[in-house]
Amino acid sequence: xxxxxxxxxxxxxxxxxxxxxxxxxxxxxxxxxxxxxxxxxxxxxxxxxxxxxxxxxxxxxxxxxxxxxxxxxxxxxxxxxxxxxxxxxxxxxxxxxxxxxxxxxxxxxxxxxxxxxxxxxxxxxxxxxxxxxxxxxxxxxxxxxxxxxxxxxxxxxxxxxxxxxxxxxxxxxxxxxxxxxxxxxxxxxxxxxxxxxxxxxxxxxxxxxxxxxxxxxxxxxxxxxxxxxxxxxxxxxxxxxxxxxxxxxxxxxxxxxxxxxxxxxxxxxxxxxxxxxxxxxxxxxxxxxxxxxxxxxxxxxxxxxxxxxxxxxxxxxxxxxxxxxxxxxxxxxxxxxxxxxxxxxxxxxxxxxxxxxxxxxxxxxxxxxxxxxxxxxxxxxxxxxxxxxxxxxxxxxxxxxxxxxxxxxxxxxxxxxxxxxxxxxxxxxxxxxxxxxxxxxxxxxxxxxxxxxxxxxxxxxxxxxxxxxxxxxxxxxxxxxxxxxxxxxxxxxxxxxxxxxxxxxxxxxxxxxxxxxxxxxxxxxxxxxxxxxxxxxxxxxxxxxxxxxxxxxxxxxxxxxxxxxxxxxxxxxxxxxxxxxxxxxxxxxxxxxxxxxxxxxxxxxxxxxxxxxxxxxxxxxxxxxxxxxxxxxxxxxxxxxxxxxxxxxxxxxxxxxxxxxxxxxxxxxxxxxxxxxxxxxxxxxxxxxxxxxxxxxxxxxxxxxxxxxxxxxxxxxxxxxxxxxxxxxxxxxxxxxxxxxxxxxxxxxxxxxxxxxxxxxxxxxxxxxxxxxxxxxxxxxxxxxxxxxxxxxxxxxxxxxxxxxxxxxxxxxxxxxxxxxxxxxxxxxxxxxxxxxxxxxxxxxxxxxxxxxxxxxxxxxxxxxxx
Length: 867
Description:
The strands form nine sheets. Strands 26, 27, 28, 29, 31, 32, 34, 35, 36 and 37 form a ten-stranded mixed beta sheet that branches. Strands 1-2-4-3-5-10-6-8 form an eight-stranded mixed beta sheet. It has four domains: 7-207 and 232-297 and 314-388, Zn peptidases (Aminopeptidase, 3-Layer(aba) Sandwich); 405-474 and 487-521, no CATH class; 539-604 and 858-863; 609-849, Class I glutamine amidotransferase (GATase) domain (Rossmann fold, 3-Layer(aba) Sandwich), CATH 3.40.50.880. Helix 8 (154-162) crosses helix 13 and helix 18 runs antiparallel to helix 19 (577-587). It is 31% helix and 19% strand. The protein contains 25 helices and 39 strands.
């Protein structure tokens, strides 16, 4: 494995015959090292100390190797622990290569596979602390690692001999640091156990789990490297916590419905592992364990839900939470069912031993999670050959299904509205370990001409399931699994589709037959390097490219002059060829020649002073993702909180203020929004209580009336509609889910590309529409002309992927409007155009609102930029 340190040192140790230390002076117990037992009341071990402990174990034991995969978003070490017998650790790279062949056995016959299995070891990855307020698993991992490197019983030796265990002890080290610091600060005060007021990640908080398929965060990239490319384990389990009022522990398998297109063996394996975990929990006397309930097999494409389509038994545990490390008392009559597969808090076949209530402690969670973690390793060790043979079977059968089924593959044409975003899509697919090929020249397939540079993704590959869901149209099931007894739809666990291509606005063509044209394998990330036209006095940047907006911001930083024409292209003057070359290489965009007068029929682009609203009460993930997108495209901004808004005179500091998606009550403070997992949250310290109140709302309205621009995403549109009295009505307000339902779907929409707010967009495309998003009807007034409709839904057939009920309610209605209000305006985008930094296809709707200058008509210049 590339990057693993100390492998050769371990090999030398093994050759020299140095024995593995047993419990004793060389390997300090966690309790001795930290000064308390993991999970002790009101005690949390900090990440820096945990890292030091793992380094101590590494030095003391030849059973463990610590790999620092690199810095986290905020600079903390992101660790992976490799634990196995010294002999196995001495040949890790060989084991990785054998495992890779079993995971993609194309070209191998069965005799070779069986020979490889005699040499191979089962690979199990377990991750902890992805959601950092779920503190137990990172504490538990310390004890799990200690037990594996010190125990010498038959069970442990069997695990060490037959399994390569890879632990990710904190999936979010930054959050582990923040939560621990916050908790230690509040212990012994009236705010002990209260949730942290801000996001437990610099950008994404709880949404880091939703980043598994687009891997925008560096932590996701580290994990993807292990899970999807370098190791491809036979089993993966992600340890989590849930609310405190129901079962004590959820273990696999998932409840119905499940996503199709995974190999049936992977679902059987999850049941197999889950049954063993549940059995071991009962054996250990742990009450309140449920399986096949609560969490459905059709979830978001987070790490434990995408892995089954990588042919990995992808699982999770969910423990009932305490109040961080503070005990929590529950009376028997406070315990409840009501979730999928657990309608009542009563004994049933998947829940034979209900917990009776009482004190619930962090130590209880640590113990039950350790039992679960150990059980997965135990089952893999006892059944090594079966587990490895089934890895081969899953890969072979999925490849055969892909070859025999339809579509036979997907073509990503070179001809795209935004070709650089199409390349970004390809690179994200490569992170998943998906096989991609590229055509060096034009070809014709099924009657369509595809240009040189087009990509082909065949379905005849082991990861055909991942390909199907990231590139293929998705229709969420509408049946008895997905509706309650009264017929109301049951919300999916997050989105109803995770189609990456649709989110990104990239054209992908399914093909019924394999592409037979000359193709070359794509083995490394595709890195476009933009070109610069020689001898140009002025340059043209294609306004259809997201990358052009980053280029514009970089150029403005360096003093260039930018204008915009009536079709949305950017015209650049005052940039040297050297500067243009630097920006072109950094963004991938071409600097084409512009001939004519750049000032004719164009308007100057100026950078607007941007304020981005943020609140406390756990933070706002949509705000965090917005920050991330702005930074990726080099838009400067200032974070604005309640006090700055209430102070008024906002126009002195800002031209634009953005309200990310948030409910009206959360924005105003009329009721707070709790956040994260765990028991109901008490109020945080006064300095962390949020809400604009009437004073803040009035200040925002004054800002707009005096010439400012307010931009709202999703639910945040309710604030200006209801409090400013805008002539709009959200047609979905108070509509029952039986009448309208779109829980994370892609819907067809039309864009007014003649309006500067939609410059660079296609005339028709897709928007990602979530539950509680908004659709607007214009209320007739004497000032109808002051409302502009930017994005509109067509009259029928709105659904592309996901689940949609009641399309007639939104057909021909507006999804994005701009309303003149005094001397300023309010831009309301009823969906989330920057959702989780995944919806690249609608980023430009945000970017256009952040650049000043609206071009006039009558552009007479010509271009030879080759568009």
